[in-house]
Amino acid sequence: MKAPKKRKPSASRKRSEAKVGLERLRHVAPESLRPSPENDRLYRPVLPTDKAVIELADSVRENGVFEPIVATADGFIVSGHRRRVAAMVAGLATVPVRYLDKRRGEYLGEEFVALLREHNRHRVKSVSEAIRESIVDADPEAAYIDLLGHRDHVEEDLLTAVNLSGSIQRKRISGAKSAMVAAILKVIEEHRAYLPINDRKIHYELAQHHRPLRHTAKPDSQYAADQRSYRDLCDLLTRMRAEGIIPHHLISDETRPEKVWRCWPNVEAFLRDEVSEFARVFWRDLVQTQEVHVEVAVEKNTAVKIIESVAMRYTIPVTSLRGMPSMPTKHRIAERFKATGKSRLVLLLATDFDPTGEAIAENLAKSLRDEFDIENLLAYKIAVTPDQAADLGALESVEGINLKAGDSKAKRFRERHGEDVVAYELEALSVADLQRLTAEAIDAVLDTNLLNAEREQEKLDAAEVAKARQRLLLAMSEEA
């Protein structure tokens, strides 16, 4: 009987063996392996605190290292930098390693960088890592220098340096401010669900509901709704943050917006975040069956978050006016209404009870009617109304009531409400009062039976969405 013919290795296998030049598998301590410095030229440095490394460590701890690490004859890692760190995090005594027949120093020029790239082509990489690989193929040194540079280089001699001589030294908070500090902390605690909070809201809370002594040794220093108290508060809030009494993120400043770009370190992190949030947030339109379309408009940013917490239970839009409404704001409200196909718009407004607040409410309603052709429009005040101002008690605004003799808005305000009229700030309303007034206004203009039916259907929808999410995620994982 003839001996079976020995199969010749394929051409691809020959090339693979020539390229790899591997010895037999050995198990060594992961600490004995040395990371290759060139790896950072192609890929992100591997840190034990990286989320991906921690997740890999959990898997390695339970299942071990499946894919052996590849290293040079003298222990420099060619493939497996993440596996090594994950094994160390997991506390593994040894890891499987296949050694090449050459030492690291035997690779000439950029041969070792090319070897790293070749052995890591199979793994999932970020876009930036893939780009770096192609850069190395073209001109490694020039590409690496370019990689580290800014996209738009700015010559240093074109910039003007900021003078940093001297230092900022703030006066320490003394015991004389203890009552005011305690009142501020109480206001922040009362508004825990609506943080951050701004200086103005704290001012009105102190003046309306707490009235602490601004100086404990001066009985006549009780906090009031005036500029002196407000300036004292702003200074104290600055010092409380500087001294670490309250965290910086609890106090907001809506007048100075900023833009921070949402970024990811790599494609893997982006996809992980996107998948974790996939189909998690579902909102049913709870007012789609109502005969009217309802919009809420709020004069002050400080009140928006409180009113939003109520309006979102009805899925009713809320607009922050920040003073007299602009044409783009009016246009967006009008477009939302027209898109519903409904015949009537109901506008609910929350403004100060003062000449400007009343003018804002009237301007928005009249403009939507006359300039945007919404003839069937009803407008109501959520707050603050004359009756509410009388019941709650008048409180002067930080800027003053502004009932100047030559002010046309003030003149109309007096004509309607009398010469002795006093103003009331929307921000002076307590959270509980403003929430209650908002809910009462919305309930008054909606059909409760239709609303409750939509809420019951939303419960059924939520269960259906959860099941669909699981099916889709399973299908996506099978495709991957």
From TrEMBL:
Pfam families: ParB_N. InterPro entries: ParB/Sulfiredoxin_sf, ParB_N. Gene3D superfamilies: Conserved hypothetical protein from pyrococcus furiosus pfu- 392566-001, ParB domain. Residues 14-29 have a biased composition (Basic and acidic residues). Signal peptide: none annotated. Residues 1-13 have a biased composition (Basic residues). Residues 1-42 are annotated as: Disordered. Residues 26-121 form the ParB-like N-terminal domain. This is ParB-like nuclease domain protein. It comes from Botrimarina hoheduenensis.
